[in-house]
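Question: Send over one sample?
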Amino acid sequence: TYTYSAPRLSATTARTGATITVEATVTNTGRVAGEEVAQLYLRDDAASVTRPVRMLKGFQRVSLAPGASATVRFTVGPEAMSLYDATMRQVVEPGAFSVWVL
């Protein structure tokens, strides 16, 4: 079994074209060594078009001994936050995003 810390962001706001680093600590709470695949999900909270509730934007495999922890890091750039608007242009709209590392 594994537990995850709350995601930590390098910044809570980003200017156009900027990137943000998302980190979380994964801990093996089980009694045997194992591998876990940490997954980064984003949601555009106020998009102008319908978007998925959670969009997979990255993943990272970690090997952990019992009781060990590791920090996973993801870089979120404009391409991860972009969408196709009603006129089928790829854009990054201003607004809030939700972030999960699971």
About this structure: Residues 78-81 form the longest helix (4 residues). The CA atoms of residues 6 and 96 lie 18 Å apart.
